[in-house]
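Intended use. Records like the one below are meant for learning the mapping from a protein sequence to its folded structure. Do not use them to infer anything beyond what is encoded.
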Amino acid sequence: MPRITEERREARREQILDAARACLLEHGLEKVSMEMIIARSGLSTGAVYRYFKGKDEIIGAAVTASAREIGVAFAPILAGPSPGLPAQLVEKLLEAWVSYSISGVGPAAGVDRMPVAVHGWSYAQTDPDVMAALRANLRGFRERCVPLVKRWQDEGEVAADADPAAVAQLMLSISLGFVAQRSLAGDADAGAHACALAALTRQPAPGTITDSR
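Structure written out for the chain above:
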């Protein structure tokens, strides 16, 4: 038999992770079984076990992969040459979250990954390795925000005496709170968050000025 390519191997692995995400959303963390994941993946039992030892390993991999992927989605926004005002940046970040959450294909087609993230946070409480991976991603987000806050301070958009690390914590809390609200309340709008932040900070609402920064 021809050897499976690395690209095909990775595609199958992602197929299994997407199946796990779909099962988490449909059945909840406690009720998901290996049998459910295998059935949803469309692969044989043997094929799935060639990639993962069991349910916990699959869920842990799905959670850490999602955290890594949303970090990749945020990276160009945080490192871009034109972050804009704080409210504009927040809107871009939240819109990136929404785009990622509805981008599933295959077993995860039509599955909103944002509520799945809440299950992932719960699972991380029981798995030290997953918790460590999530914490590394969250702290990395805050670290990438600090230079932006300092830039805003230089431009007079944020108070000069504000602690950049504290502002970075707030930006992370806005992102995580958006995920929780959209998942638990059933709705949350990125544009509404951005406009509210602009009003609170007495800055122009997103879309009312040209972003030339």
